[in-house]
Design goal:
With about 110 residues, the protein is α/β, with parallel strands linked by helices. It has a domain at about 35-110. The chain is about 40% helix and about 10% strand. The chain contains six helices and three strands. It has helices spanning about 20-30, 45-55, 70-75, 75-85, 95-105, 105-110; strands at about 30-35, 60-65, 90. β1 (about 30-35), α2 (about 45-55) and β2 form a beta-alpha-beta unit. The chain is globular and about 35 Å long. This is Peptidase family S51.
Length: about 110
């Protein structure tokens, strides 16, 4: 079994000082970043995806948003399959409590391992 890279970044993602993202992309071998705006479900999640797209465009990779905003979304097999196939998954900032309640014991969380 092959395991990927896990990076805990903290808030204020996708800024000029986030030089580590280039290294994470290199190590993961990803050409696409899968962004889950789950923690920002009540804070304009589409804007989160747009911000990520604007940021990662400079790295020459594509960005795909996956709207896992509720526990039902997190138990959708298609969403879990998308996560399982991703080489680079970015969980955006927002509410850690909401993120936990959505992903806890879900298919999507299971797909990350």
């Amino acid at each position: 079994m092959t395991y990927g890279v896990l990076g805990f970044v903290g808030g204020n993602e996708w800024g000029k000082d986030c030089t580590f993202d280039q290294r994470l992309l290199e190590v993961s071998g990803a050409s696409e970043v899968l962004v889950l705006p789950t923690a920002a479900a009540y804070e304009y999640p589409m804007r989160v995806i747009q911000n990520a797209t604007n940021y990662f465009d400079d790295f020459g990779v594509t960005t795909k948003g996956l709207m896992v905003l509720s526990h039902d979304d997190a138990n959708d097999r298609r969403n879990a399959q998308t996560i399982a196939q991703a080489k680079f998954i970015y969980l955006s900032g927002g509410s850690p409590l909401h993120l936990r309640s959505v992903l806890k014991e879900s298919l999507c969380f299971g797909a990350t391992s």
